[in-house]
Design a protein that fits this description.
Chain A: InterPro entries: G-protein_gamma-like_dom, GG3-like. Chain A: This is Guanine nucleotide-binding protein subunit gamma 3 isoform X1. Chain B: Belongs to the WD repeat G protein beta family. Chain B: Keywords: Repeat, Transducer, WD repeat. Chain B: InterPro entries: G-protein_beta_1-5, WD40/YVTN_repeat-like_dom_sf, WD40_G-protein_beta-like, WD40_PAC1, WD40_repeat_CS, WD40_repeat_dom_sf, WD40_rpt. The complex is a heterodimer of chains A (about 270) and B (about 375). Chain A has three helices and four strands, in the order αααββββ. Chain A has about 270 residues and is mainly α. In chain A, the strands form two sheets. Chain A has a two-stranded antiparallel sheet. A two-stranded antiparallel sheet of chain A has the order 3-4. Chain A is elongated. Chain A starts with about 25 loop residues before the first helix and ends with a strand. By secondary structure, chain B is mostly beta strands. Chain B has two domains: about 30 residues; about 325 residues, YVTN repeat-like/Quinoprotein amine dehydrogenase (Methylamine Dehydrogenase, Chain H). The N terminus and C terminus of chain B are likely disordered. Classes of the chains: A mainly alpha (about 270), B mainly beta (about 375). At the A-B interface, α1, α2, α3 and β1 of A face α1, α2, β1 and β28 of B.
Amino acid sequence: MATAASSSSLPSLPPPSPKSPPDLYGKRRDTARLHMLDREITFLEVELKNVEALQPASACCKEVADFVVANSDPLLPSRSKKNHRSCRFWKWLCGLPCLNLSWICCCCFCCEGFPVHLKLPSCHCCRPCSCCSCSCNCLPSINCSLPKWLCCCLCPTSSSNCCKGSNCCSFSKSSCCKWSSCCSCSRSKCCKWRRRSCFSCSCPESKCCQGSCGFGNCCILPSSCSFQCPSCPSCCSCKCSCTCSCPSCPKVHPCCCCTKSFWRSAFCCFCC
Amino acid sequence: MSLSQPKMSVAELKERHLAATDTLNNLKQRLNHTRRSLLDTDLAGYARSQGKSPVTFGPTDLVCCRTLQGHTGKVYSLDWTSERNRIVSASQDGRLIVWNALTRQKIHAIKLPCAWVMTTAFSPTGQSVACGGLDSVCSIFNLNSATDKDGNLPVSRMLSGHKGYISSCQYVPDEDTHLITGSGDQTCVLWDITTGLKTSVFGGEFQSGHTADVLSISINGSNSRIFASGSCDATARLWDTRVASRAVRTFHGHEGDVNSVKFFPDGNRFGTGSDDGTCRLFDIRTGHQLQVYCQKHSDNDIPPVTSIAFSISGRLLFAGYTNGDCYVWDTLLAKVVLNLGSLQDSHEGRISCLGLAADGSALCTGSWDTNLKIWAFGGHRRMV
């Protein structure tokens, strides 16, 4: 092996280094993508030729309408004599014949001549419900209007303050989260997509709730991701300690609710 | 063009790529234009022109007949058997429960190896159940197996291979040995359960498939070689299991994730439900979008659709929403005829899943309130 000359007249050359291999993998990938595009173009050209021969939407709509009309449906209300089977099925499911035909707070109607007692609507109002008037088609002597399923609520304030299905609230409707007990949360704390309960969202707004917890903030699950949370109060304030990477993530939200599961000793978090 | 020997330079490749993309976009535009010209009406317009009367429900026509209580976490998925009125449900509590829908009895409570379950399905014979979730594995349980020493039903087969979570699964009708899964890795897979191996992969990096997570699948009841998938890429795609390399057709229209797909009972159409708050009906042979089902809200905040199901005649479309509503749509006239969420004994949380009994006589809804509810026709029939 020749040694480098130590003469001062020769410039010192950089040490030899091998040439880096050509980026064939990247090129192969791009070539494959181009191949895929060319294939797509071929398919679309064929589709363009075929689409002009397709029937218009009205022909498809006729097929749908004809199919629907031709087939009976046990879930559809019918005013004919047919469908005795589903009537009997309903009777079996919904209990014994009515023994107490008191028209006060009792809604009853007939199925093929047999009076059946419906369950009373349970009242959630802070005061007893007024009687829901009932209808009994087989007993014309009882003169009632049609039954109402929603509870007649006698909250002291106007009905607009009585949240559906909940206690009468002394707050305005905007503060009473739908379906929950009356809560004093402000709108900004009651995250938009969860109207049911107030909770303190420890995630910043951009990471919380509808639309914002999108692909950019999702986590790859499960092995690298720890969902261990500290014990949570009833309002969720825990955070998930996931590292985030896009886009291979399920539709999860980093702000999760902890629930105590009977099958596990620790608190479990599941985000969905 | 050979993939094995790249002959073009990088610059030439880029140029060809740009040209091909332009051609593709141009073709798509022309295709869309031609398709739009074929949309001479939608289903509601046609039904009105034929003088169809709307479906009307009395206050007691559709009632909650049963509430199935037992899960301690959100219910994410449910499926009916083909017979005998059993339901399997999957929950955040890490359990599958098999219920007798009539008696409310819990027949099995299966503790899962991974609690993060997202989907479950009954086999056609009712002898086994499948489930999958964030562990990326589809687990099969044989309901007739003996339990282990802890009283748990063992996993009889694990279908591994997906690179992302399993969002949906369904057995191929009349075949206990094959099922299809949809996954967060953007693919759908047809599995042979006997061997535990993949038969076909639909989509993927170099195939014409979804470009985002697959969220839902539905197999055509009239032709089990055909199935539809819905995805976060806002499209639904139709697949033929004999041709895995490319979707038969891609259905555009939604403006958000397609969370749910379900075939219409005639097998020639399918419905979708999306984050954009709408449901849509598509024709599989022509690709036409036949109807959009959208309910305007006063606050302009349209809740996403989580799940859909058609009644057995197709006249009713049941749609569950994130705000707990469960609209019953008149499919022909595109009108909401009932909201199960406003009825007595309705759920107190998001409707996460829906399913119709095989004979069409009952609907089961699952919710984040941890319950399942059975809804059936409770109206009276006047003697004519």
